[in-house]
Amino acid sequence: MDEVAIRKALEDAVAFSPEVQAKANKVVAGLFGRAKDNLMRDFNENPITQELKAGSEASNISDTLNGEGNLFGFLGFFQGQDPTEELGELLSRVSYERSSIRKNVIYYKITNYPTEGQIKDATRMNWGNGASWAYGVETGEFEGDASLSHYIFKTWAGSRSQAGFQIKGYEYSEESFNPKPYITQILENFADRVNNSTSKFLI
Known about the structure:
By secondary structure, this protein is of the alpha+beta class. It has helices at about 5-15, 20-45, 45-55, 70-75, 85-90, 115-120, 135-140, 185-195; strands at about 95-100, 105-110, 150, 165, 200. Helices cover about 45% and strands about 10% of the residues. The protein has a 3-stranded mixed β-sheet with strand order 1-2-5, with helices on one face. Strands 3-4 form a two-stranded antiparallel ribbon. A hairpin with a 2-residue loop joins β1 (about 95-100) and β2 (about 105-110). The relative contact order is 0.17.
């Protein structure tokens, strides 16, 4: 057996040893745990999440609306609904697993990382084309009839949210919607934390 073969055999023996794998798993669990905690904190503490969770009585802490009202009423959610619940559950399922061992390196990969399609399914609105509110708040485009020019903030039991209603065909406001970074930025921050760790994470 030549020197290269001997070195490879020794490296494989080390990488595949239960003791080394246990230590690697412990380190990775800590690194991933911190990244996951920050992911959920970024989501739960985001002003858009908090405003939608607060429902029809919320103030516009996300600063997405320049006039009266709040996102819950503007987006037409049903009274008592938590629009963020499914998205939060989707993010909570993000995990990791060991994927391979190559050249004495133990590789891990992220699992259950939400796709754009999954996020859209989890954040579909109740009206129009069922566009995603999570992506809509980032762009100001909701692929439907939502528009501040048709939005009146008024407590009214006849509306879905009981916090506003829309009138089609007449301009009621000169106010505009202010797009804000949201789920795309939250996931990018998570990916940066993972990729900048000292472990071999692969997304």
